Every structure is written in C-alpha cells, then in structure tokens.
Amino acid sequence: MCFINGTPLTVLYDSGATHSFISHACVSKLKLPVFSLSFELIVETPTSGSVITTDVCSKCPLTIEGRDFMVDLICLPLSQLDVILGMDWLSSNHVLLNCASKSIVFGEPVEKVSKDYLTANQVKVSLQEDAQVYMLLASLDSEKNVLVNELPVVCDFLDVFSDVSSLPPRREEKFSIDLVPGTGPISIAPYRMSPIELVDIKKQIEDLLEKGFVRPSVSPWGAPVLLVTKKDGSMRLCVDYRKLNKVTIKNKYPLPRIDDLMDQLVGACVFSKIDLRSGYHQIRVKSEDVPKTAFRTRYGHYERFIKGFSKLALPLTSLTRKGVMFVWDSKCEDSFRALKEKLTSAPVLVLPDLSKTFVVYCDASKMGLGGVLMQEGMVVSYASRQLKVHERNYPTHDLELAAVVFTLKIWRHYLYGSKFEVFSDHKSLRYLFDQKELNMRQWRWLEFLKDYDFDLSYHPGKANVVVDALKEGHRSKLSFHPGATKMYHDLRKMFWWPRMKKDIAEFVSACLVCQKAKIEHQKPSGLLQPLSIPEWKWDSISMDFVVALPRTRKGHDSIWVIVDKLTKSAHFLPVNIRYSLEKLARLYIDEIVRLHGIPSSIVSDRDPRFTSRFWESLQQALGTQLRLSSACHPQTDGQTERTIQSLEDLLRACVLDQGGSWDSLLPLIEFTYNNSYHSSIGMAPYEALYGRRCRTPLCWYEPGDSVILGPEIVQ
User: Fold this and answer.
1) 282 and 158 in a common domain
2) In the sheet where 295-296 sits, what is the strand order?
3) Which residues sit opposite 458 in a β-bridge?
4) Phi and psi, residue 574, nearest 5°
C-alpha cells in the first residue's frame, strides 16, 4: 500500500522491472500532471508483448510507511495495479524485499560523524606529545559516467597508448583458413558505391597501405568491400567474405558458456575490460593463406563505354598501323557500319554530373515498377521490373512506396550521401514520415529510406508524362490497345518528337497483348460498290449481331452493333440471343431513337429478327426504309462487318489485359472506339459527331498548351 496526495493505492514491488510505472486510470483519477517525452519508450511486458508510451509523471509525491519520496512514474495501461516500483526506486533507496513476511525493509541510515576541526597549532602540539595522527586525503567526484579519454591522467599520458602502426610480431600460433577439398579461387566484382563512399574507401585503403596492414596483390581470390556506418557517423571498411566462409571448414572449438563465466565472478571486487584497437589487424595469417584474404575495389579497373568495341574496331585499327597498306575491303566496310550503328543507336542518355542535383521519377502499376533518373531535364538512366507474385496483392500505397525503394536501391551509387528529389504521383507518400500506424513492411522500408537525404514531392499524374504517357495511352481502360495508326493520330495532337510514327509502330508491334488479340485485316479482292454518302448524322445506319459470346452473370451472350454510316460512331448494346422482338424494339427506342432520332434507312443482313413482320411494321410506322443485303454476301454491309472486327479485337485485348466480365467493360470499349482515330474519315467518330474529341484522363496537358517531348515517351 502506498499513498499519493493522501489517496491509498495498490503497489507492486517488482525487482524484475527496470523502471517504475503508474496506471492511466490512476493518473486520471488523481489528476496528476503528465509530460510527453521527445521519444517513444517500448516497454516489454510478460503477458501482452510490447507497449509503446511517451507519457511520464515527473516528481510524483509518493508516501510509503511514513516516508516521502519523489518518483518519476511512466504511464502504462495497468488493469489491476495502480503503481509498480521497479529497480530504479528499489536500488536508489536501498530497499530490501522480505518475501517471508511480505514486507519491505529500508536500509539503515548512515550515522553522521561529528567533525572537530583543529588548528595548525593544535596539530603541532599533538605531534610534540607523541599523539597518533592520521591524515586522509578525500576528493568529491560529482561527475558520473566519465569517459576514459576525459580523465586528466589519461589526457596527460596519451603517448602511453600508442596507435597500431604495423603488423603484430610473429608467433608460433597463426590463423589459418582451411578450405573444403576441391574448392577453386573465388573472385567477385566490386560493388557500386556512391562518390562519398569511394572517397572514404580510398582514404582508408591508403591508411592501411601506409601502416602495412595490406599490400598490392595478384591473388586469384578477391572479395568485394562495403562500408558500414558507426555510431559516431564515421564509416567502417568491411570485406564481404561470405562466399569464402561458405567453402571454409568451420572451427568447432567450443566457446565458454556465458553463465559459467558469470558464476566465476563470485567474490570478485575489481572488474575490468580490455579492448584492442584494430584487433582484426593484430592477428597474423599463415603466409600460404594470405592470398585468400584478398579484396577488390574499383581502383585499377576500367569501364567499357561501347560493348564489344575492341572486336568491332579491330579491322579499322589495323589500317592505322605503320607499314600496312590501306585496303578498304568488305570486312572494313562491315566493321565501319556496325561501329556507326552502335554509336548512333545508343540510348539517348547523359553522363551523370555529381555536382548537380539528381531527380528521380517513379511510378507503379499492376504489372510492374519503374523509374527515371534525371538531371536538369535530361535522362541519366531508366529502370523497371515486373511485380513478383506476392507483390500483386499489395495495396496501391505500398506499390507506390515499393517503386521509391526499388529506384533508390538501383541508383544507390548515385544517390547515397547526396541531396536529391523524388517525385511520385501518389499524394499520400508525402505524409509517410508523419504516420504513426505502419505495417511491418512499411517500417522496414522506412528504415531503409532514412539512410538517404531526399525530398519526396507529389507530381500530378497528368504532369508525370515521362512515366505515364504510353502506359495510359495504350493499356488503360480508356484505350484498350489501339493499333499503331490510331495511337499515332491520337498522340500527335498532344505530343511530338522525331521519328514519332516509327517509334509508336515499334512499340505497338512489341506489345504481347496486341500480338495475341489482333488479327490481320486486308481489303477484300474485287471491285467494291460503295453505298451513297448520307446527308446528315445518324440519318442512315447499319446494324448486326455478334453472337456466341461467353454468357455473363447478367445473362448477356451477344452484342447488338449499330453504326452511323456518316460519322462512323457506333453503339454496342449487350443482349441475349433469346430476347423477344418487343424487348429489342424497346431497347432500340431507348438507346438509338432517344439519342439520335429516327433514321431514314437501315442496312442489315437477313437475320430472322430483321425480316420479321413485327420489325417491318415498326420501321414502316416510324418511316424508316429497310435495306436488306443479298444472301451469303456480307460485303453489302461491309461497314458493320469492319466495325465488328475492331470490336472483337478490343474485346480480346480487354479480356487479356483487364480481365473480368466483358459486358461490364463494354461501355468503356464503346467509348474507346468512338474516341479514337478512324482512317476512313480522318478523325475520331466523336469528333465528327460533336465537333471535338471528348476529354479523357489521358490529357496530361492543360487546355491550350502544346507539349513536345522526345522518344522517351514510348520507352
């Protein structure tokens, strides 16, 4: 039992707790002042796992057995206890726990010794009288946890602690590296490093060379190096010997048990510890095993700018030598053309300038992750990869964050240690570092991102054309894989770059979905007799059915295709093959007559529904003339047949790329068809019908602006 401000509380004296705690209910009941810490405390409990808290009651007045104490109590959600007093309070007040009597015992207070001060004359007289005098020299140590290098005696004798400047003396016992029989030399290419890391590595290697810890090597072995940040912010040079360790015979000498070592400390009164400076370099290795410890850095290695340059230029190089007759043969001509092709067809990239700021654009989709590294509007590098199987289940927020992590890992050698900018079209990423509730995957990525110095900014999707343009223009739910001609005419009004038509054709030809879904369309042989051109929009129409489609949940298994002969605009109506003529007539009135009025003529084949008396009577009452095609001659209604071919291509691409039920995506397919370029009229059907194309989310530019970009938009 304890008291706070006279209120009795239930207390637990816990020698297993490092700190003291108070329940939230008790704090609210007593209205105690609570202070917030600048950091989070993670408290491990034996029953409920970890608890995070930032609240503390400072200098809380606590009364126990008539004694008053000022205790700092951490606030926790305690259910059955009010206060827990841990080892911080028990040790500072010399409290003993009597388990037999279930009581506490306070240590006896130290009795004060009276001090009688003597003058110098009194001491002199006492010495003359042969009195015993004891002298005690005492100093007050007010500072605690003083570091060794802060002690005056250490600072005065720094020369005693000499730096390690050479290898240790030769001894009988040396460290050996025994390999598994049959193991050959292992050599791994150096890791890519950032400019700041390269400077640090070079400095440390020069220091090791000067001290004689390392030497130039021609060993067939070689391990890469990496840098690890120390607590003080400096970098530690580490050699990645993991491949060597896998082929090394492990030393099975038993290590001493820690609990046995602790038992040996019984009765000890002096404790000390020893640490060796550069202890790794104070162990000699057998001379025959020294080559196995070789490591590799980028210094002394050279890079090739053109792949296979030496082979390509070999025939040309021989012509530049002295005493060689200049003969331009077929090999030289082929070499010249191949070299010219390599130089002119290389990616349009710029070399990175480490004195300028890097900018990273990244994005994610349901198919993969991608990004662009730029400087001053010029592309330095591209990166992309497909999503892994488990990543396809990530929510959008995690996918966008995964794109940021992916690009930073790829270009770490450029970005680490320097200030840069990251742009993403996912606005919520701007508040990532302020969120308190994150899952384990996000916490892991957040720890990775803290190693970089960057500003994360929001880039609207319509402005992020470098990443989004072709993806949305070719694979979105408002485009459904248009062909090269349609895509060229759709994009030319918004963008332009050299060789634009060729680049789009190459991109579309490489689309796997287009190769699976599209079929080759050729003009039929023989002379064509075109129908007369209508005088007005939707004055003359044609119609037909697409049948034998997979039945959907709504019962649809066919599509009624109705096309305007003048504007080429069309309506795709999902129907069932068993619909009655009355239901088809009602659908015709609701979807066609309601929007476009009554046409003057209808061209169709001799489907039983179009030759029925009901349909003829209905059109006669409306004043519409029926024009039926000849039997077994679909060329009569070639316009509808060609529209059906385009519709089937869109349906196949839709199912392959988007998935789901085809009738739910049919409105978007209709919009895609009507809003894309049509070669027979030189514009989109909507543009011919309404005077302008319909606006879509694919318009990344503001109205009135002209956007001119390079071929990167299709790469």
Assistant:
1) yes
2) 235-239, 223-229, 295-296
3) 424
4) -70, 130
Contact 9, 64 (CB under 8 A): no
Q: Which residue range(s) make up the domain with 574?
A: 540-690
Amino acid, res. 518: K
> Which among 424, 459, 494 is the end of a domain?
459
Structure tokens at 338: 């191949």
Q: Are residues 17 and 62 in the same domain?
A: yes
Same domain, 396 and 317: no
- Cβ neighbours of residue 634 under 8 Å, at least 6 residues apart? 605, 641
Q: Are residues 326 and 378 in the same domain?
A: no
In a domain, 121, yes or no: no
**Is there a contact between 179 and 246 (Cβ–Cβ < 8 Å)?**
no
pLDDT for the residue 487: 77
| Of residues 571, 565, 681, 575, the one with CA closest to residue 627 | 565
Q: Is 292 exposed, middle or buried (0-12, 13-18, 19+ CB in 10 A)?
A: buried
Compute the residue count for the chain: 715
| CA separation for the pair 704, 713 (Å, rounded) | 20
Beta strands per DSSP E along 387-477:
419-424, 453-458
Provide the number of structural domains found in the chain.
Answer: 5
- Angle at alpha carbon of residue 233, lines to 228 and 234, rounded to 5°: 60
Of these ranges, 123-137, 151-165, 238-252, 634-648, the one predicted with the greatest mean pLDDT is 238-252
**Token pair for residue 706?**
């002209």
- Distance linking the first and last C-alpha atoms of the chain: 75
Name residues whose C-beta falls within 8 Å of residue 707's C-beta, 6 or more positions apart in sequence: 465, 494, 495, 700, 701
Predicted local confidence at residue 110, as pLDDT: 44
CB neighbour list of residue 59: distance below 8 Å, 6 or more residues apart: 70, 71, 72
Q: Give the DSSP letter of residue 248.
A: B
Q: Which two tokens stand for residue 65?
A: 């057995």
In a domain, 188, yes or no: yes
Instruction: Tell me the per-residue pLDDT of 674-713, one tens digit each, with 9 for 90 and over.
Output: 988 888 888 899 999 988 888 776 554 444 444 444 444 4
Identify the CA nearest to 556 among candidates 580, 581, 586, 578.
Answer: 578
> Are residues 152 and 292 located together in one domain of the fold?
yes
336 found inside a domain? yes
Q: How far apart are CA 34 and CA 59, in angstroms?
A: 10
Quick one: pLDDT band at residue 76, thresholds 50, 70, 90? confident
For residue 69, what is the domain's CATH number?
2.40.70.10
pLDDT at 348: 59
Domain stop point among 442, 459, 476:
459
One domain, residues 369 and 448: yes
Instruction: Tell me what the mean pLDDT of segment 351-365 comes to.
Output: 87
In this structure, the answer to whether residues 336 and 298 fall within a common structural domain is: no
Please indicate, yes or no, if residue 206 is contained in any of the structural domains.
Answer: yes
Q: Which of 398, 403, 443 is nearest to 424 (CA)?
A: 403
Q: What is the full DSSP assignment across 126-168?
A: HHHTT--------------S--GGGSHHHHHTGGGSPPP-SPP
- Non-local (6+) Cβ contacts of 171 within 8 A are 284
Query: What's the longest Cα–Cα distance across the chain?
Result: 150
Amino acid at 460: P
Same domain (yes/no): 283, 314: no
User: What residues pair up with 229 in beta bridges, in sequence order?
Assistant: 235
521-540 pLDDT, tens per residue? 555 555 555 667 888 899 99
CB 698 within 8 A of CB 585: no
The closest alpha carbon to 660, from 391, 371, 366, 447, belongs to 366
Range of lowest pLDDT (49-53, 282-286, 591-595): 282-286
pTM for the model: 0.35
DSSP 536-587: STTSEEEEEEE--PPP-TT---EEEEEEETTT--EEEEEE-TT--HHHHHHH
